[in-house]
Amino acid sequence: MHQRVLKVLEFDKVKEQLLEHASSSLGREKVNQLVPSTYFHEVVQLQEETDEAVKVLRLKGNVPLGGIFDIRPHTKRAAIGGSLSPHELIQVASTVHASRQLKRFIEDLNEETNDLPILAKYVERIIVLAELEEAIKHAIDESGEVLDGASETLRSLRQQLRTKEARVRERLESMIRSSNAQKMLSDAIVTIRNDRFVIPVKQEYRTYYGGIIHDQSSSGQTLFIEPQAIVQLNNDLQATRVKEQQEIERILHELSQKVGEYSGELETIVLVLAELDFMFAKARYSSKIKASKPLMNNEGRISLIKARHPLIPIDEVVPNDISLGKDFSTIVITGPNTGGKTVTLKTVGLCTLMAQSGLQIPALDGSEMAVFGSVYADIGDEQSIEQSLSTFSSHMVNIVDILNKVDFNSLVLFDELGAGTDPQEGAALAISILDEVYKRGAKVIATTHYPELKVYGYNREGVINASVEFDIETLSPTYKLLIGVPGRSNAFEISKRLGLDEKVINNARSYVGADSSQVEKMIASLESSRRQTEADLEEANDLLKQAEKLHKDLQKQMIAFYEYKDSLYEKAEEEARAIAEKAKKEAEEIIRELRKMRIEKHAEVKEHELIEAKRRLEEAAPEKRASSSGNKFKDKKHVFRPGDEVKVLSFNQKGHLVERISDSEWLVQIGILKMKVEESDMEFINSPKPADTKPIATVKGKDFHVSLELDLRGERYEDALLKVEKYIDNALLAGYPRVSIIHGKGTGALRQGVQEYLNNHRAVKKIRFGEAGEGGTGVTVVEFK
User: Fold this and answer.
1) Could you say which of 3.90.1170.20, 1.10.1420.10, 3.40.630.30, 2.40.128.110 is the CATH number of the domain covering 3-129+262-288?
2) According to the annotation, is 776 in a ligand binding site?
3) By the number of CB atoms within 10 A of the CB, which of 7, 287, 358, 674 ranks highest?
4) 64 is in an annotated binding site
5) Any known ligand binding at 340?
6) Is 268 annotated in some ligand binding site?
7) Contact 123/107 with Cβ under 8 angstroms?
8) Which of 73, 67, 55, 69 is nearest to 25 (CA)?
């Protein structure tokens, strides 16, 4: 497909919108490479892929596509023996985890529906590398820090580091607490310079502590000195740090070797994830523009039902029915330049390019699109400034190029054909060009304001006229395409509405030929008939909708009637049973008394007669009827699904279902808590509607939990600020309105640094110290915007 046509029809703008729905750089790369295919079987396959992705979104509303990275450079470097950084390794583990999640998601859904053959085939190619993922996550945390547990050696070295740091701090703190320290030190704090612990000493006391000067303040009044007494301790600490770094590098190299071993499998995972992300980006875009899957053919037939231009907002665009290639292969849209004609051309062209790219089209179900070998467009605003050509010349350059290439498998779009020159010559040229393209067997849509082409549409087989409706009352086009009705000039009517003298208009009418006048009257009559037919059809549709509503209401009333009837029967049976039970009890009492009388007074009452009387009483009690069909709706049990809103009865709290744990247990999210709950302890409230917008992609796993407070006590100043930055990001991602940061009271340096950082953070609304019961000035409470 020629690049100029893609630009003229604004296919690049469709791709820009599509880019917004990709979840990873892999998907965005696929979108950037997207071009329409000209192979029928490939287009059918692409449409099937998109349709399956649309089914998944319709059923689940979301797809786990978070945490995907383009790890191909990492795997290539690891394969040739290079070492990866902690962050690169975490990206590998995250991508492996995402592939595993997506594989399980698609396989589970396919088991339920048995209707996702293409997606199932894609995820079959994903190799589960749980061992590699576990090895990386065991050694490195989410923020890229190598964990103590990565190896026994590292655990031991880290323990030694903590012990030696504590010893150095202890020695320095004893120095700054001494009686002389207050006058000799600028501030009673221990700080770090060049990875070594130092204290701030006033310039005049520099020789008192001896040792090494590492830094000085901007004024020169304070020197940061490593006292002689702790030089050896700092040396030991530094040596241990070097060993720690060597062990970290060994661990990273070992993990990188494992990544290199699986480089082939990882390459396959990346390729599959790129395809899946691209497919679901197309599906989300389809949902956004309310598109549908077109039926594809290889015979040049287009049948668009209520088609919309995808780049015009849905609430502004006017949908149109457009057909081409069955009864006629050329549409000539005539009429004055009132807008709407070019939009129609671009709608057909853009829908063709979208369909051939595997995108669903903004039209109703049942629309049909053809796969063309070439699409050519000569659309109005393409005047060549560089070549200093006139409008006519610019058009003609494009048309010559089109006529050199066009064949039976082409779609050609001409905008204002023959414009920019003498009307008679322009019209004659337009007719000749249309004849030539028609002979080649191409499908053509052309717009023109030449009245001569109305006759062309009537006199040529396979050609039909069309126009864009114009509302005389509002003096504006309705943008409704009328196939079969040629456009007519509204000059006299518009002039009259705008106040031009009646005598001038009548004089003008006298100059119009009789034939032309009759044609205009015929067109006006056609438009009037069409409007009446549309009004009648709309009225018939309204009546049909009313009848359907009435039918549904009657069905509901019948169901309610039968349920009420059954309830009355049940009530009557209960009352009858109660009366019978009462009678039975009374009869048994009488029988007991008769037996007693027979024994005591030798009355002639036989035992079998008593038994028979009792049996008749029991038979008199009514049996409970089986519940009728009207009651089947009452006891129907709700089938719980992830995302359902429920009420947990034992806590009297509302929550949302996260996932099923067993046959009878669910994981329920109540506020920020997740807990296991029995189905019997839940009451269904409602199911969520599928979301319309794209999910936020996140590298966090589903079990990731963010604490409501961050404890910085004992942390070094720089490390503490890094932790605060990461913690604030995680808290915002978790959606917390408020968190607490525990920094302790101490010297106040850490507290001041934390509060300065928070005051400058764009997401922080305000900060305050904790209340008496919250930790006082040792805690900063942060509220988010």
Assistant:
1) 1.10.1420.10
2) no
3) 358
4) no
5) yes
6) no
7) yes
8) 69
